[in-house]
Design goal:
Elements lengths: L1 H27 L3 E4 L5 E6 L10 E4 L4 E3 L8 E6 L6 H15 L7 E6 L7 H10 L7 E5 L2 H11 L12 E5 L5 E6 L3 H16 L8 E4 L21 E4 L4 E3 L7 E7 L6 H11 L1 H6 L2 E7 L7 H10 L7 E5 L3 H11 L4 E2 L2 E2 L3 E4 L5 E5 L4 H14 L13
Parallel strand pairs: 5-6, 6-7, 13-14, 14-15
Antiparallel strand pairs: 1-2, 2-10, 3-4, 3-7, 5-8, 8-9, 11-12, 11-15, 13-18, 16-17, 18-19
Length: 396
């Protein structure tokens, strides 16, 4: 009888733990790592949490300069190789050739092969190599360029090593909205079959799949922002709201928002700036633009202190978010690297930064200039209609 009771209690604990885990997943959008029997590992995460691929500029085999912005609104698959590799790389690209031919006529799918040996792989060398593979010049690009630019592309956007001695053998799929969607082993038939399945989903999408849970082998998508010390350049950030909750900038995907900076003990420009934002709250809400104010004094500006500050401003918690953190250097990096503004504690920018639906800062405005405030709202209305990401450095 006691053994039966023990078994029943174990069952209750297991079932209860599973239910609790599912609730936590739904509430916090925690990535669930799912190993399967053949050693592949998947995660399930919201589409918004997929990392985006930063713009890269290289040289095509034709000798023309190439920018990844030319592929905006189009899915593409990227692989790394070098032309003097007589075995694995060549077989790898024969697989790419098969995929390129398969999708050549029906879709706007593009394949992008990037050399990891740019010192030897000049445009002329890549032309001969591509001609040997009978590569379609419009659908299959071969890129070379400065070694630092190629390493930056691999390390920052795809988190892979890029050099002839040790480069990735994955095919990396980027969707129409510039998100690193998934990766696939070129020499695994199961993975190539999965590539076809995932690509069909990507090609069928006519709008950003906001809110959709993506199952992917891009396991770094769930981890890359948790340890900022290992990230050479911030493309997104995590901070804490005045309510004590985590704020992940990728969760703003699909929304146009405005970032500003302040600290609660400031007796200078900060009170005037936030008073102005308070007066503009209704206008921002009507324009469906969310306000995000970040403290530059995280050591003193606790969530509790921010709540009092926000209440004094009569800030609408559904339309105006106040953020703090635990690390001053990290806050400085958010401002300097992500938002391209000067920041150092009390000496910080007082500009308003307009961020588009893809999480890319587009332009900064002086809140003290009424004409610039009008320009901000005009530009926000345009950004709300964008269906593909734009150049983050573009100044409209």
């Amino acid at each position: 009888m006691k053994q039966l009771q023990i078994i029943l209690w174990i069952g209750v604990v297991v079932v209860g733990g599973g239910i609790l885990g599912m609730k936590l997943f739904k509430k916090n959008k925690i990535a669930v790592v799912q190993p399967i029997s053949d050693d592949r590992v998947f995660v399930e995460i919201p589409w918004e949490h997929l990392p985006d691929v930063a713009e890269f500029k290289l040289t095509e085999r034709s000798g023309k300069k190439f920018s990844s912005n030319e592929l905006a609104g189009k899915p593409y698959a990227l692989n790394i190789f070098f032309a003097s590799c007589p075995t694995i790389c060549y077989d790898f690209n024969k697989t790419i050739r098969s995929l390129s031919n398969k999708y050549r006529k029906q879709t706007d799918m593009t394949f992008v092969s990037v050399t990891c040996d740019p010192g030897k792989d000049t445009p002329e060398v890549l032309t001969r190599y591509a001609d040997g593979l009978q590569a379609d010049k419009k659908r299959w690009l071969f890129l070379t360029g400065p070694n630092y630019a190629i390493r930056e592309l691999g390390e920052q956007s795809f988190r892979v090593v890029v050099d002839p001695a040790n480069h990735t053998d994955d095919i990396m799929l980027v969707d129409r909205w510039g998100r690193y969607r998934d990766r696939f082993k070129w020499n695994d038939p199961r993975e190539i079959k999965r590539f076809d399945t995932v690509l069909k989903e990507v090609l069928a999408e006519t709008k950003p799949p906001i809110g959709k849970v993506i199952r992917t082998r891009n396991v770094l998508a769930a981890k890359e922002t948790f340890d900022p010390s290992k990230i050479p350049f911030l493309k997104d950030f995590r901070l804490t709201t005045s309510q004590g909750r985590e704020f992940f900038s990728r969760d703003m995907t699909g929304k146009v928002w405005v970032a500003s900076f302040f600290f609660t003990s400031c007796n200078g420009i900060c009170p005037r700036q936030n008073k102005k934002l308070s007066e503009l709250q209704n206008r921002f809400k009507q324009a469906n633009v969310h306000l995000v104010s970040i403290s530059t004094d995280p050591a003193n500006d606790t969530p509790a202190k921010l709540r009092i500050y926000a209440n004094d401003l009569r800030a609408n918690p559904h339309a105006w978010t106040f953020l703090t953190g635990t690390d001053q250097d990290y806050i400085n990096r958010v401002m300097g690297e992500y938002l391209k503004l000067h920041a150092h504690g009390e000496h910080h920018s007082s500009e308003l930064v307009l961020i588009d639906r893809w999480g890319k800062p587009r332009k900064s405005f002086d809140w003290k200039d009424e004409s610039q405030i009008d320009q901000l709202f005009e530009m926000a209305a345009k950004l709300a209609k964008e269906q593909t990401p734009a150049d983050s450095l573009k100044k409209d």
